Amino acid sequence: MLNYCLVKLTRNLRKYNESSLSLKSVILRTRNGAEKFSHWTKRQQLFKERLFLKYDNTKCNSHRLHIRNVSSVLRHLKIQSAVPDEIIENALKEENKERTIKHLQKMKPNKKLIERCKLQAGVLVPFCMVDNKPSVLFTLRSSRLASHSGQVSFPGGKKDDCDVSLVVTAMRETSEELGIDEKQIDIWASLTPISDRVDKYAITAVVGYIGEVDVDSLPFNHHEVSDVFTIPLSEAVRNRRYTKWKTGLIMPVFLSGRYKVWGLTAIMLDRTLDALLTGHYQMVSRFH
């Protein structure tokens, strides 16, 4: 279906370049052609709704398109393309682990961001296997907590004075929150820090692997965590969406699982998947 839409779009864009069609007509014709194509799957139906039904009827009488030009149309087509099952199945294996580590180690941290933030925090992006499916684990913060209560997050927290590094911080907090032995955590590498919205914390995501997990048997800390859940990587990739702000900020949203994954947690997962599935996954996180 994706190839069909791309061919249809290319033909209509050729007419647009010849000035025989408006850009609005290009999208309408492509959409109408897609509607006539039979045997939609659920994913393809969502693809059609997200990509071809984006008109702003309130701000502009001419139905100005959110998709501004040809290159962005093609970029959004690429974002929605599926990651092959084989790539997902091998994502956490040794060969891809080594490639991912090399990729992450090439990233250069933003020194100005670190200097701007007064405090540092470390979180673990805990990849795992659940029923032989590569997955990623999340926590739901307890409603008793003073900050970010009831939000989906990765295990982690503020760096203590006794922590020699943010990797140690991430491992210590994960052990405290989930009851996982630190020896069980296989650390891969760290992402470059990102800041919270008020530039108080520089947050470093540490990528790690915690093996086979049964969330129902985890002795997690109920004072800090109200729930623990996992999302298979295949579902996370397939159900990734995004929100675009007027400022130019683009933030990913993952709609799989019991809870919506958004905010900094979604950004860290988006960046991690871009490194883990290089060449098959394109992150949408952007900062202007």
UniProtKB/TrEMBL annotation:
Residue intervals of the Nudix hydrolase domain: 118-253
Cofactors (names): Mg(2+); Mn(2+)
Lineage: Eukaryota, Metazoa, Cnidaria, Anthozoa, Hexacorallia
Superkingdom of origin organism: Eukaryota
Pfam family, one: NUDIX
InterPro entries: CoAse, NUDIX_hydrolase-like_dom_sf, NUDIX_hydrolase_dom
Listed PANTHER family: MITOCHONDRIAL COENZYME A DIPHOSPHATASE NUDT8, NUDIX HYDROLASE
Protein name: Nudix hydrolase domain-containing protein
GO molecular function annotations of the record: coenzyme A diphosphatase activity; metal ion binding
Keyword annotations: Hydrolase, Magnesium, Manganese, Metal-binding
